[in-house]
Amino acid sequence: MSHAPQPLGAPVVRREGRDKVTGAARYSAERNLPGCLYAWPVPATVPRGRVTAIHTADALALPGVRAVLTHENAPRIEEPDDPILAVLQNDHVPHRGWQVALVVAETLEGARAGAEALHITYESAPHDVVLTEDHPGLYTPQTANGGYPAVRERGDFDKAFAAAPVRIDATYTLGALHNHPMEPHASTAHWSPDGHLTVYDTGQGSTTVRDTLSTLFGLRPDQVTVVSEHVGGGFGSKGTPRPQVVLAAMAALHTGRPVELSLPRRHMAAVVGHRAPTVQRVRLGAEADGTLTSIAHEVISHTSTVKEFVEQAAVPARMMYGSAHSRTSHRVTALDVPSPSWMRAPGEAPGMYALESALDELASALGIDPVELRLRNDPADEPDSAKPFSSRNLAACLREGAARFGWHDRDPRPAVRREGHLLLGTGVAAATYPVYVSASHASAHAAADGTYRIAVNATDIGTGARTVLAQIAAGVLETPVENVRVDIGDSDLPDAPLAGGSSGTASWGWSVHKAATGLVRQLGERTGPLPEEGVTVTADTVQETAADSPYARHAFGAHFAEVAVDTRTGEVRVRRMLGVFAAGHILNSRTARSQFIGGMTMGLGMALTEGSTMDPVFGDFTESDLASYHVPACADVTDIEAHWIDEDDPHLNPMGSKGIGEIGIVGAAAAIGNAVRHATGARLRTLPLTPDRLLPHLP
Question: Are 512 and 455 in contact (CB under 8 A)?
C-alpha cells in the first residue's frame, strides 16, 4: 500500500532498525563463508625495539592451526600511504601493541591458543611515552589535522592582552581518549580463483578501503570489492583502513581460504587510533563590559613516531568569538606511542572544552552572566577569514536554550545551592562544528513498475543514512519514501566519500539529489511507458564541491547542564542536559535527535568517566577494555533533551543541511565542568572529573 509523500525532515523510522534488533543484519565478522578460517593477531610486548626471533613450532603443532604469519613469511605489500598499515613487513617495533604475528586456525579458539603458544624474543630500546609541557622534542608542524595552518596570528596579542583590564590565563589538560564502538574492528577476506579480492570490512568508507587494498596488493580497483553493509559505530576510528583489513587479506592470500579477523577489544587501544592528550593554555583579555580584546589558544599534544597526526584543538578559537587580536598555535612531539587519529569532533571536542571553560572563568571574573557574555561577543563575520557566515544562529540557540532550561532563575553564586549532602550547580557552553562536503557519485533508476533505486557507496555507521537518502530522493521524485530502494555500503556502487567529519549526508545526499533531479527531467521528456529495463541517470558533484565558498559555514549550538555533587563521595551526577542546535535544515527529526543525544552522551563521558592512562614503564594504555574504560551507561543519562532551530541556509547544498554527527559532543564536557564549578566553587581544569580529583576540593 502506497502512502502520500512525506516532507523532508519527517521522523521516518530507520529502514534497517528491525534487522538490527532481530539479528538479521550481518556485520563484517558474521559472513559465515564456506571454509572460513579465523585469525588472532599477536601484539608486541615491548614499548620499542625489534623482534629478534619468533618460534612457531609449538603453535603450528596445535590442532587446527593452519598458519603463522610473521615478518619473515607474510606476503609483501607495496609501501602504504598510511604507515600504520605496513604490518608484518619488517622486525621493527615502534610501540607496544604493534602487531608482530598472526595465527590462523580452523576456529577462533584455536587461533587464540596458537597465539599464546608463540615464543617471541625482542631486542628492547629506550622509550619515551609521556607528554609534558616542556618536552624537549616539541616542534611546530606545518599544519594540523584537516590541513589547517598550525599557527595563526591576527593583530598584536601580547600588547592587547597586557593592556586588558580583565585577564584570564588558564591551562587545561586532557588525557588520551579512545573510540570504543560497540562493534570491534573486523574484516573477512577471501580471494577468488581469478585473483579478485573481496573484503567485508567495518570501515567508515569502503571506497577508500578498496583503493588502499588495490594499491597495497598491486591490483586494479576493479579487482577489489569491499562491502561495509552494516557498521556498528566508528566515531572516527574506522575512518581510515586499519591493520586488521590488511592482515585478513594477507592471511587469505597465504592460506587460499577465507579468513575472518575481529580485533580483541584489548588490542584496539594500540592499533585503531585515539584522541591525543592535550595541554591547552587559553588567555582571554576583555574590557570591563565583557568585550573580548584578545584571545590566545596554544595547544601541545603528542603524535607517534610512525606518522604525524596533530589534533587541531586551537582552530575553533579562530572563529568562535570576535576579537581584533588573536594567537592560536599547535606544537607536537613524536613519542613511542600508538598513532593518534580521528575521534568524534577531532579538534573541536577538546579545543572547545578549554575555550568554553575559559569563557566561564572570564564571566565569573567580570560578574557577567555566562550566556550574556557569549552574546556580547557573537561576531557578524568569521574573525579568521573575514567571510560572512552563511548562517550563524548561536545567539538563538543560547536564548532558546536558556528559556527551555530555566537558566535565568538560577542563583549565580557558586556553592550555595544544597540538598542535604549534595551541592547543585548549572553550567552552559557553546558548540560549533564546520561544514564539510566532498565529491560524491550516485545513480537514480526508475523501474517500469513505478519504483525507484538509488545507488551510492555511502556507509551507515548507525546514523540512518539509508533512511535519510531515501527521503532526499523521494522528495525530488515526489513519491512515497516506500517506493525508493537505497543500495549503499559496497565499493562496486558509485564512488562516495567516507562517513566522517559530519560530511556524509551532505556529500552523498547532494549527489543523490542531483541524480534524482536528472531522472525527473529525463522522465518528463519521455512519452509512453518506460522500457522493461527502466531508466537510469548517474550524477556527480565533483564540480560543485571543488568551488571554494565565499561564506564561512558552520553549525552552532548551546549546551546546558545541571549537576549534583556528592560531598561525601565526590561523585558527580548529571541531573539533566539540554542541547539546542542550529544545523541547517534537519532531514529526519527522529535520526537527528538520536545523533544529537548520542554526541551529548559521549560528552558526558568525556567530562566524568572516560580516560586512558599511559603507563610510563610498559608504554601502553592501561584502560584497554570496557571494564576499565568507563563509557556512560543508561543510569548516567537520566534526563537529556535535544532541540534545534531549523535554519534556511541557501549556501550549503540542495537540501540546506549541515552535518550533525559531531556537534553534539562539542561543548558538552565544558557545560558539565562549568556546572561542577558552580556547584562546588572549585575550578578543576583536568578531565575527567572523577571523585578522587574532586574530593580534596569539597567541604
Answer: no
Mind listing the pLDDT tens digit for each residue in 566-615? 999 999 999 999 999 999 999 999 999 999 999 999 999 999 999 999 99
574 residue type, one letter: V
Q: What is the layout of strands, in order, in the sheet containing 292-304?
A: 151-154, 325-335, 292-304, 278-286, 166-174, 686-687
Instruction: Say if strands 325-335 and 151-154 run parallel, antiparallel, or are unpaired.
Output: antiparallel
Q: What mean pLDDT comes out for the span 473-480?
A: 97
- Indicate the pTM of the whole model: 0.97
CA atoms within 13 A on the CB side of 47: 18
How far from the centroid of its chain's Cα atoms is residue 322's Cα? 28
What region, left, alpha or beta, does residue 64 occupy, with left being phi > 0 and alpha being psi -120 to 50 degrees?
Answer: left
Q: Which secondary structure element, helix H or strand E, spans residue 117, and what is its range? A: helix 108-117
Contact between 225 and 206 (Cβ < 8 Å): no
Nearest to 270 by CA among 620, 634, 542: 620
Furthest CA-CA distance within the chain: 82
Which H or E run contains 678?
A: helix 668-680
Q: pLDDT tens digit string along 10-22?
A: 999 999 999 999 9
Residues 95-147: tens digit of each pLDDT: 999 999 999 999 999 999 999 999 999 999 999 999 999 999 999 999 999 99
DSSP letter at 377 equals: T
Per-residue confidence (pLDDT) for residue 104, from 0 to 100: 98
Q: Please, which pLDDT band fits residue 459 given cuts at 50, 70 and 90?
A: very high
User: What's the length of the chain?
Assistant: 699
- Asked if residue 3 has pLDDT above 80, the reply is no
Is the preceding peptide bond at 688 cis, omega within 30 degrees of 0?
A: yes
Q: Provide the CB-side half-sphere exposure for 88 (13 A, CA).
A: 26
Half-sphere exposure of 172 (CA within 13 A, CB side): 31
Residue pair 588/438 in contact (Cβ under 8 Å)? The answer is no
Q: How far apart are CA 233 and CA 230, in angstroms?
A: 9
Query: Would you state the pLDDT for residue 1?
Result: 44
d(CA 58, CA 49): 24
C-alpha cell belonging to residue 199: 573484503
What beta strand segments (E) does 48-204 contain? 49-55, 65-69, 92-93, 99-105, 119-124, 143-144, 148-149, 151-154, 166-174, 186-191, 197-201
Kindly write down the DSSP assignment for every residue of 235-286, as one continuous string: TTTTSS--HHHHHHHHHHHHHSS-EEEE--HHHHHHHS--BPPEEEEEEEEE
**CA geometry: angle 506, 509, 510, nearest 5 deg:** 80
| pLDDT tens profile 50-96 | 999 999 999 999 999 999 999 999 999 999 999 999 999 999 999 99
Q: Hey, what amino acid is at 261? A: L
CA 244/CA 469 separation, integer angstroms: 30
Mean predicted lDDT score pLDDT of the chain = 97
Can you tell me the mean pLDDT for 638-662? 96
Average pLDDT over residues 194-210: 97
Residue with C-alpha cell 568524534?
A: 344
DSSP 388: B
* Cβ neighbours of 364 (radius 10 Å): 19
Instruction: Give catalytic residues, as residue numbers.
Output: 662
What DSSP character marks residue 146? G
| Rounded Cα gap, residues 425 and 678, in angstroms | 5
**What is d(CA 425, CA 415) in angstroms, rounded to the nearest whole number?**
8
Task: Return the closest-CA partner of residue 40 out of 156, 171, 163, 186.
Answer: 186
